[in-house]
């Protein structure tokens, strides 16, 4: 059994995030030492690593929790996992399209910028409320 600092180091999840996950019921509360300090098992650290990987892939916390529950349920439901992943992929693609539109809009705004101008065309366009997209 290890303390929260070591669990944080081994899992890559910050101490405050671990405490948050516990408060919110995302991970079970750990065992406690006689001095009331949290004690984590290798399984607890594995849960934290799993959540970190899910979050690193951009899954919302609720989905990461669902995936964790599915992974620990014994009867992994591959169809549910695939549906969740497909929905997430769709949202990622939507975000990518929005970021590309944003990039285009910023390129259009900055294309007119000239470092010697007294009046900045980009700021003028932003002030007039024109939407470059």
Element string (H = helix, E = strand): HHEEHHHH
Number of helices: 6
DSSP strand (E) fraction? under 5%
| Uncertain regions spanning at least 5 consecutive residues | none
- The helix/strand class is mainly alpha
Q: In oligomeric terms, what are we looking at?
A: single chain
The whole-number mean of residue pLDDT values reads 88
Separation of the first and last Cα atoms? 55 Å
**Biggest pleated-sheet summary:** 2 strands, antiparallel
Strand order in the sheet with the most strands: 1-2
The residue fraction in helices comes out at: 55-70%
List keywords for this structure.
133 residues, mainly alpha, two-stranded antiparallel ribbon, 6 helices, 2 strands, 3% strand
Task: Provide a descriptive summary of the structure in words.
65% of the residues lie in helices and 3% in strands. It is mostly helical and 133 residues long. Strands 1-2 form a two-stranded antiparallel ribbon. The protein is elongated, with a radius of gyration of 23 Å. The model has no long low-confidence stretch (mean pLDDT 88).
Question: How are the secondary structure elements laid out?
Answer:
Layout: H1 4-11, H2 15-23, E1 31-32, E2 38-39, H3 42-56, H4 61-72, H5 78-111, H6 121-128
Antiparallel strand pairs: 1-2
């Amino acid at each position: 059994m290890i303390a929260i600092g070591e669990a944080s180091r081994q899992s890559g999840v910050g101490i405050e995030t671990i405490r948050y996950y516990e408060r919110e019921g995302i991970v079970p509360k750990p065992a406690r030492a006689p001095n009331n300090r949290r004690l984590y098992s290798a399984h607890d650290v594995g849960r934290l690593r799993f959540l970190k990987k899910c979050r690193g892939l951009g899954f919302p916390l609720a989905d990461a929790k669902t995936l964790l529950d599915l992974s620990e349920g014994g009867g992994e439901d591959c169809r549910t996992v695939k549906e969740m992943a497909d929905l997430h992929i769709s949202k990622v693609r939507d975000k990518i399209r929005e970021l590309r539109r944003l990039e285009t809009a910023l390129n259009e705004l900055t294309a007119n910028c000239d470092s010697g101008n007294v009046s900045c065309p980009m700021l003028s366009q932003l002030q007039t409320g024109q939407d470059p997209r």
